[in-house]
Amino acid sequence: MTTETITVAPPRGMRDLLPAQVALRDWATQIILQNYGLFGFTRIETPVMEHIHLLRGGEGGENLQLIYEVLKRGEKLESELEKSSISRNDLSDLGLRFDLTVPLVRYYSNNENDLPKPLKAIQIGSVFRAESPQKGRLRQFTQCDIDIIGTKSEFAEIELIQATTKALQALGFNGFTIHINDRRFLSTLATYCGFAAERQSLVFNTLDKLDKIGMEKIREELRSEQHDEAAITKMMEFLQSYVRAQESGNTSFEEIKKLLPEAVTGEFMESLQKIIKAVESLAGDNFSIRFDPSLVRGMGYYTGAIFEIKYPGYSGSIAGGGRYDKMVGKFSKRDDVPACGFSIGFERVMDILTEKGFTPPFNAKKIAFIFDPDRDESAVVVQAANSLRDGQNVVSLQARKKDMKKQLDQLLAQGFSSYCVFKGDPNNLEVKQLEQK
């Protein structure tokens, strides 16, 4: 007889979180919620599962290939299995959400009559993607979103950026850069250069790699996709002038705008300028914002301004978002509902704080109440410990071990700041400070 080995590790791409990790995440979540609340955002919740046809129709870019699908159940599944020809799409009717935007739009379409206008929503929760697990790519992770549905003007973008930067600063992040662009600019530029409309998404995906692979690799990739050579030449001329401006430090909106042909400018450029000017007035020396013509963002649902925040010394972004005005129309008969959102990369932020050795502040005194289970009466112990809790202290009962010195060292490592050795008298409790040896 063979004994099957029981695997106790979590599924690949998913994690167990230890108490210290959860404490950091709880602290960060509370800080984020407090700061978002200052701008009138309120928290909502959506299910982790959505109808599969909504997930597939949400223009989620490459994430559409990473959906965890849920099989039909019971009679529904038996009915499908009895059919002579079955496709993969026939067998599932639900899926785990791969982001929080698609669920939000479904939520809004279902509850619109009961929601404030505009809706200013916070969502913090797990999302799931069938990734190939590796560093920085998990199958279950937390997203932290704020969205405004119902505001057409650039004040939505300004407020989203302001709330996000305030939350990041409260978490200890400064010196970051907000990169901003507009999908309408990208479409206008691609059309001006001569790229076919139906192939522009390929162009954008390539442009998005500029800071990772450089100019020549961009040219090679565009050619490998067999775009028109004249269009490639025009696009490369613009990119080269943009890179030269970057290298010389001429990265202001006005300087970059001078590089653009007149045919590529429009009302959206005025809107971008208003956003940049407003955010710059708030930035001081804490962060900066700049127009980045190579910024794309992968989701297919973006229709206007798009933005990311990059933190010095770390690759990738720590926040990203944009405007998605056509999204609500895909879920309801209304196609005139403007929407815009910004998401903090919660896992990336947690990783950076952990790498820096950050420990969340803890105002209450954390006391280990050490007692002798063989000698002390249980009712007296719990009453004595409770008297210390009346002072808003955190008090944890700890059975006394033979090696007291080792026990105190372990308690200090677990985050206890103080200890009290119970000596039988609840009216004579001495709390002592735990000190690093």
Uncertain runs are none
Number of strands: 15
Q: Please, how many domains?
A: 2
Shape: globular
Q: Helices and strands, in N-to-C order?
A: HEEHEHEHEEHEHHHHHHEEEEHEHEHEE
Query: Quick one: biggest sheet?
Result: 8 strands, mixed
- Counting DSSP H or I runs of 4 or more residues, the number of helices is 14
- CATH fold-type name of the largest domain: BirA Bifunctional Protein, domain 2
Percentage of residues assigned to helices? 25-40%
Structural class: alpha/beta
Task: Please compute the radius of gyration using only Cα atoms.
Answer: 27 Å
Strand content: 15-25%
Could you report the average pLDDT, rounded to the nearest whole number?
A: 88
Structure commentary:
With 437 residues, the chain is α/β, with parallel strands linked by helices. It has 2 domains: 19-355, BirA Bifunctional Protein, domain 2 (2-Layer Sandwich), CATH 3.30.930.10; 366-433, no CATH class. It has helices spanning 19-37, 52-56, 74-81, 101-111, 155-170, 183-193, 200-207, 210-224, 229-247, 253-258, 267-283, 346-355, 378-389, 404-413; strands at 42-43, 49-51, 69-71, 92-96, 119-128, 140-149, 176-182, 287-291, 305-310, 319-323, 339-344, 366-371, 394-399, 418-421, 431-433. The chain has an 8-stranded mixed sheet with strand order 1-5-6-11-10-9-7-8, sandwiched between helices. A hairpin with an 8-residue loop joins strand 9 and strand 10. Helix 6 (183-193) packs across helix 9 (229-247) and helix 8 (210-224) packs antiparallel against helix 9 (229-247). The two termini are 53 Å apart. The model has no long low-confidence stretch (mean pLDDT 88).
